């Protein structure tokens, strides 16, 4: 289970931080055509792109794109990184300090509680990032960008050429919800290692044992 959490955890935040896509449109000036393009990448604070593009009269103007989706993206990545570090620590605990897990009842309890926390964090991060990704797609659509730059693109002057492709980020969201399942599904096995479950099992065994009852 830890191997699956490790692989899918890295994949979730790596597909987000390494992402980059491009949009473009064409300005039809009276005597020439000017291609305009922009890059959308992590952390997706698209309102801070500060990209200068040429106008038909030869001057330069900043391309305006609204929206800042960096907070949800960074939170999602932070959850992935923290989960990655926790897995490394947990594997070291299982492999080299197993006696602590067996002899100290607090260690299994903390491990189980940590998995509950990470399952909640993955759910919150994935949900927030999925919502921001939807808004990011709308904000960076070529038609929306053209509409937000009326001084640059007069009516029917700019024509869309290339829409940004967010397929890789959709995969990152799916991986996030898959991590929710992986961390939550591991809770039962961790709960069985806590003294609460062992004490309950022992009490049930004593209650059904005739000699114990006598």
Automatic annotation (TrEMBL):
Residues 1-195 form the MARVEL domain. It is a multi-pass membrane protein. Keywords: Glycoprotein, Membrane, Transmembrane, Transmembrane helix. It is found in: Membrane. The chain crosses the membrane at residues 75-97, 109-130, 169-191. GO terms for cellular component: synaptic vesicle membrane. Belongs to the synaptophysin/synaptobrevin family. This is Synaptophysin-like protein 2.
């Amino acid at each position: 289970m830890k191997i699956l959490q490790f692989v899918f955890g890295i994949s979730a935040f790596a597909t987000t931080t390494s992402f980059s896509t491009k949009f473009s449109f064409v300005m039809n000036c009276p005597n020439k055509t000017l291609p305009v393009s922009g890059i959308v990448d992590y952390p997706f604070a698209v309102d801070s792109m500060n990209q200068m593009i040429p106008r038909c009269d030869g001057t330069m103007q900043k391309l305006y794109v609204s929206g800042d989706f960096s907070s949800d993206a960074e939170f999602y990545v932070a959850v992935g990184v923290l989960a990655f570090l926790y897995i490394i620590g947990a594997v070291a605990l299982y492999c080299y300090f197993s006696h602590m897990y067996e002899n100290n009842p607090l260690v299994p309890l903390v491990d189980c509680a940590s998995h509950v926390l990470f399952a909640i964090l993955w759910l919150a991060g994935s949900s927030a990032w999925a919502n921001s990704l939807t808004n990011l797609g709308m904000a960076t659509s070529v038609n929306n960008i053209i509409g937000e730059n009326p001084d640059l693109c007069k009516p029917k002057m700019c024509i869309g050429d290339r829409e940004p492709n967010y397929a890789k980020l959709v995969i990152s969201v799916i991986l996030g919800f898959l991590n929710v399942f992986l961390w939550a599904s591991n809770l039962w096995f961790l709960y069985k290692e806590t003294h609460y479950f062992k004490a309950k099992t022992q009490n049930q065994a004593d209650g059904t044992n005739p000699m114990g009852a006598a």
